[in-house]
Amino acid sequence: MARTAVPRRLTWRVARLTETRTETPTAETLVFDVPDWPGHAAGQHVDVRLTAEDGYSAQRSYSIAAPADGDRVELTVQRVPDGEVSSYLAGGLSRGDPVEIRGPVGGWFVWRPESTAPVLLVAGGSGIVPLTAMIRARGQAGSRTPFRLVYSVRTPADRYYRAELRRGAPGLDVAYLYTREAPDGGRPPGRLTVADLNSHGWPADFEPDCFVCGPTGFVETAADLLLALGHDARKIKTERFGPTGG
C-alpha cells in the first residue's frame, strides 16, 4: 500500500548566538547554534521570534546565508530604521544570547548541487543573502556548475561578503552594478537594465536557472528584463521582500 506523505510540522527551536561578523555599517552576519536543526537547502529562510519579559513577541523572516552545516544556522541581518527586530539582532545580541528560530521554510526558491544547468543570480541589495548561500553550497559540494552573479547595490560600501566575492571561485563570475555611487572609470550609477543582463548574464539559449532576489520593484524589473531577453518563464525563480517593520 502506498504511503501518503505527511508534511513536516515546523517547530520553534531555541538558538544561541555563537559568532558575529560585520558586513556593512548597517548589516551583520549572525551565526547560531540550533540543537537538532533538521538541515536546509540553499535559498530557504527561517522565522525568527523575539519575546519580551512581559510576553510581547515579534517575528520576522530572514534568508539563510550559508548551506547546511550540522546545527549551524547563519543569517545576515540589515538594521532597519526603527526596526524592533532587526535593530536587536544586528547590534543588540551578545554571544550566548537566545532567540527562537523556526524553519527551514520554502522549497521552490532553492538551488541543489545535483543541478547541472548554468545559474544566473541577480541580487538587489540584501537580496544577495540567499544567493550567497547558493554560491557557498556550490563550493561545499565541489560542483562545477557555472555561476554568474549580477549584484546591484547602492554604493561599494554597501556590498555584502565583499572579501569572499572578491576572491571568487573557478566558474563564478561576479558583476557589480551601483545605483547611487560608482568607482571612477566603471559603469555610471544607475538601475538594472537589459544591457546589464545581456552583458553579464547567460544567453537564453543556454537555458540557465535564474534566481532573482531583492526589493519588489527590483525583482519585477529584473524578471521582465529576463523575459525580454528570451528566458523561459519557468526557469526564472524570484524571491522578494518589502517593508515589514524590521
Summarize the topology.
Elements: E1 12-24, E2 27-33, E3 45-51, E4 57-63, E5 72-78, H1 86-92, E6 98-105, E7 119-124, H2 128-141, E8 147-153, H3 162-167, E9 172-178, H4 194-200, E10 209-215, H5 216-228, E11 236-241
Parallel strand pairs: 7-8, 7-10, 8-9, 10-11
Antiparallel strand pairs: 1-2, 1-6, 2-5, 3-4, 3-6
GO molecular function: 2 iron, 2 sulfur cluster binding; oxidoreductase activity
Organism: Actinomadura livida
Protein name: Ferredoxin reductase
Structure report:
It is a single chain. The chain has 246 residues and is α/β, with parallel strands linked by helices. The chain has 2 domains: 12-105, Translation factors (Elongation Factor Tu (Ef-tu), domain 3, Beta Barrel), CATH 2.40.30; 119-241, Nucleotide-binding domain of ferredoxin-NADP reductase (FNR) module (Rossmann fold, 3-Layer(aba) Sandwich), CATH 3.40.50.80. The chain has helices at 86-92, 128-141, 162-167, 194-200, 216-228, and strands at 12-24, 27-33, 45-51, 57-63, 72-78, 98-105, 119-124, 147-153, 172-178, 209-215, 236-241. The strands form 2 sheets. Strands 4-3-6-1-2-5 form a 6-stranded antiparallel β-sheet. A 5-stranded parallel β-sheet has the order 9-8-7-10-11, sandwiched between helices. It is globular and about 55 Å long. The protein starts with 11 loop residues before the first strand and ends in a 5-residue tail after the last strand.
